[in-house]
């Protein structure tokens, strides 16, 4: 594939539609720092280039005032996708091991949880996956690539990868 201009914008738009599966007019939440490549790429550029609402979250996922900050935001704006670091999920799990915050909010709009920035340990992925009842997509990329390189969206029996 050759892109003579707008390469970063093109890949951000493509990943919003085909990897994160967020369509124009839908709300998306990326709980990242704007200074990190994930932040400016998937809080600012990608959602806006894709015609989506971007939910900007500032602060920690716990202690603001409790471990339900992300779930309140998803419920309030009807986010269809949430991108968070495994560290954030581990902090939420430590503060709310029974996942009561999940059950206290209407998260029916949420179709998938995307995690990256570090490996998501299986106990954390299983805990949040059970609590939310949606796919937890652990994907990998680098600052230099500017977008995901690999990650499974659908569970494919017999897939190599």
TrEMBL record:
Molecular function in Gene Ontology:
propionate-CoA ligase activity
Range of residues in the leader sequence: none
Q: Indicate the segments forming the AMP-dependent synthetase/ligase domain, all copies.
A: 10-150
Annotated membrane-spanning segments are: none
Check the record and name the InterPro entries matching this protein.
AMP-dep_synth/lig_dom, ANL_N_sf
In terms of Pfam families, this protein maps to: AMP-binding
Return the protein name.
AMP-dependent synthetase/ligase domain-containing protein
Which organism does this record belong to?
Answer: Strombidinopsis acuminata
Taxonomic lineage is: Eukaryota, Sar, Alveolata, Ciliophora, Intramacronucleata
């Amino acid at each position: 594939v050759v892109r003579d201009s707008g390469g970063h914008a093109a890949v951000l738009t493509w990943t919003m539609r085909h990897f994160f599966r967020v369509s124009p007019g839908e709300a998306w939440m990326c709980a990242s720092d704007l200074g990190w490549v994930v932040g400016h790429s998937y809080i600012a550029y990608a959602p806006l280039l894709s015609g989506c609402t971007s939910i900007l979250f500032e602060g920690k996922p716990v202690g603001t005032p409790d471990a339900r900050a992300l779930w309140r935001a998803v419920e309030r704006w009807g986010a269809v996708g949430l991108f968070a670091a495994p560290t954030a999920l581990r902090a939420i799990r430590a503060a709310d091991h029974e996942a009561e915050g999940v059950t206290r909010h209407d998260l029916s709009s949420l179709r998938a949880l995307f995690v990256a920035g570090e490996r998501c340990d299986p106990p954390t992925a299983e805990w949040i996956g059970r609590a939310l009842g949606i796919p937890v997509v652990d994907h990998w990329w680098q600052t230099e690539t500017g977008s995901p390189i690999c990650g499974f969206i659908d569970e494919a029996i017999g897939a190599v990868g």
